[in-house]
Request: fold
Amino acid sequence: MSKELSRHGDTTANTYIDPGAETKEAYEISKKSRTLARGVIGNTTDEDRVKQRCSVAVGDFGMAELMRFRHDPVPAALGALRRSAPIITDIRMVQAGIQKKGHACPVLCALDSGAEIASERGITRSSAGFIALRRQVDGSIIVIGNAPSALITLCAMIREGVRPAVVIGVPVGFVNAAESKELLRTIDIPSISTEGTRGGTPVAVAAINECVTIFIEGNGDAGPGQRL
Reply:
């Protein structure tokens, strides 16, 4: 077994870091929440870790049962982080919540692009933004937590040949949210999604931030004192 794989396995089983916890109190709160989640959800795989973090983010361990993983999304996300690929979000709240430490990926928001496309076509700003960012979408990490329309547009782009590295698609709501995620799961692309109407910014941010944490651990940058 390689040193890298050995370290990763040990980290998953026996340690805990939170790069976003900048004080001792914040870290202790985070660690306690994760300890509870490990006990309920299990802690065997990286997908378990994503389920843990997303459940903590919404205060409901039932979230773990709603999460769906297709085509090895965590390794795909780690590879994209290693390449410093762009991370593209549907809304600014998701963009703001993503951990910026420990990686060199630019974090973009679709709402900052495509205003003219939205006006001309009468479509949502988030959908138009992804259309405008088509070139950047190739090889990128997509994180959608709010806009089903953006996820539906993205799925159409993928069917046309655009290939993001991984899609975290967890829009929330009663209009097209469940349907957009079902559509994502039919596409041959690494993805993390949720079943049904639940999801949202907290789930989207938690999923990508856990991937970032795993990436930081693999680089040996956990930081002093952050051990369970």
In short: The radius of gyration is 17 Å. Residues 62-213 form a domain with the Rossmann fold fold (CATH 3.40.50.10230). The mean pLDDT is 89.
